[in-house]
Design a protein that fits this description.
With 672 residues, this protein is α+β, with helices and mostly antiparallel strands. Strands 2, 3, 4, 5 and 6 form a five-stranded antiparallel β-sheet that branches. Strands 7, 8, 9, 10 and 11 form a five-stranded antiparallel β-sheet that branches. Strands 1-22-21-20 form a four-stranded antiparallel β-sheet, with no helix packed on it. A hairpin with a 2-residue loop joins strand 9 and strand 10. The protein folds into four domains: 164 residues, Serine Threonine Protein Phosphatase 5, Tetratricopeptide repeat; 260 residues, Neuraminidase (6 Propeller); 91 residues, Immunoglobulin-like; 133 residues, 2-Layer Sandwich (60s Ribosomal Protein L30, Chain: A).
Amino acid sequence: MEKLKFVSVIIAGLFLFLQCAVAQEAKSNGPYMTRKTMSGKAKKYYEKGMEYNKKGDNKKAISEYAKALKNAPRFIDAQIQWAAMHYDMDNYAQAEVGFEKAIAIDPAYKKKVLYVLGIAEMQLEKYKESIEHFEQFLKSGSKNETLLLKAKKHIETCNFSLTSKGRPVPFNPINLGDKINTTNSAYLPSVTADESVLVYTERVRGQEDFYISVKKDSVWQVGVPMDDINTDLNEGAQSISADGKFLVFTACDRRDGYGSCDLYFSENKKGKWTKPANMGNMINTRAWESQPSISADGKALYFASNRSGGYGVKDIFVSHCDEAGVWGKPKSLGEVINTKGHDQSPFIHHDGQTLYFMSDGHPGMGGHDLFFSRKEKDGTWGKPTNLGYPINTEAEESTLVISLDGKTAFFARDKNKTENTATDDISRKADLDLYSFELYEEARPQPVTYVKANVTDASTKKKLAEAKVEFIDLSNNQRHAFSKTDADGEFLVCLPLGKNYALSVSKELYVFHSENFALAETNSKDEPFILEIGLQPIPTIAANDEPTGTSGSSSPLAEGKPIVLKNVFFETGSASLKDASISELNRLKNLLEENPKLPIRINGHTDNVGSVEDNMVLSNDRAKAVYDYLISNGINSNRLSYKGFGETLPIASNEDPVGRQKNRRTEFVIIR
């Protein structure tokens, strides 16, 4: 609300102007007295009140102004000062009464009184009366352009509040419990995609440090300090990556910093966080950079900054990372998101399409409200939507993060009050706890699931680090995500529902592994995909072991384990390849090009629907279609053969649709 600004700026200006401005005798409803024309006891009481006012003793000042008004009820300066003192003490009802009396004496005497009265009525949630007085101020002839602009914004806020409070959204915040929340303030949360790890800031004896909690049996465990990262200086707003392996955070006044506050990062390697490092001068400037949010694929970093080139005081920017790990120049999200005010605390959901942030520039309840915006088909951001009352209030809201399924929101709230807070400044004063609540459906992001896998050598079971992980959107054969396994041979990648994806896991000297995730017709997914992937080593082929494979024939060399091409698709009942097969076929082509001595045979299989004869022909034709594609793309036919097995080698039951689908497969085997 305006209250904080009013106390620090408007009240000070109002008092100076009340004490020093020359009384303006405008048209009045009757004779009244000002501090310039008043004399006798009333003036002495007034002057005594001003002395107490300067000393900060508002109660005694009010008492003296009251005495002055008892002696001279139409002493307008005393009336305004009496009301202003009540306002300063948060006695808004009394302030309203006092300012209205001053206006009744003469509305033109001090035009700012109309504005201040509107603010007091906003605090009392008397929005209609507040609008009326702001409109009177706009028509008063005031030359104060700053207050005129603010009055227009407050009218917008009042109208929005009237509508929002008449249509409240569901909101039932639940405290995260005493294992997380202590007597210290806890705020600025972030969670991993699988909701197994929670990182947050805790203020201990004036010092800000990071704490981490893990979830066990659906219960958050006691938070412990992140000693690998915490220092004697403050560690601020942070964002943990979807897989829990990368942390971006804010640190201020560091020796290696570029500005007042910079963004730093740390990586989790084999259970230990690396020494934090500055993200560099492509991200950080001499200005203020803070409140990061890392995208699910780790390739986009959203943050707030007051750097030049923005639209307002603080704007939201985004930087993208290339495959070499280099961050590009940050770009503003544009004027649809950013306003002339403060736009900050971004959170990009794991769907990559929904952005949550706080702003005092978009229409809201007053102060900073929470908003969300969805990305349009052309990649631009749509008009922000206010999350509504009572998620947003007249107080300051900030730092909202949303779970993978979009149903749960995490945020900080003053446990002694009703408002939700956690801005950089307020967190230093309020007594904050972490809460969660169920986010109403209209404000939820796109449903998302994730794939978590452990990649090993199929023969030795050794964990394979640095294996390439690529997900392809099969609707356009474009890359959805690219990653690598970590030192523990693991990866976690988020997949928005509503599309079909191909996964390829590959590493030098190994045969690639593919998976298919058919999510185009899925609107919800309760369970994620947990995989154990064993990569088969590519056998060493002697120089004199030249293959002599022919279509349908068997090689004299022993066969390896069949490798299913899970992303090769055919038209129904046909050997015609679908376009969605291209990425998988090219991956097989690349494998053969990188291993020029490697001979393979393409195998085709069907389910048991149809006649045995027809299935044998269909499986052979489909195997030949893959064979033909490879030859047409430069692979020597001497290295290739193909064979159809029809329905003779099922790998699952044909009694159910899932089993039949698994049996309809194309695979290849390495001829040793």
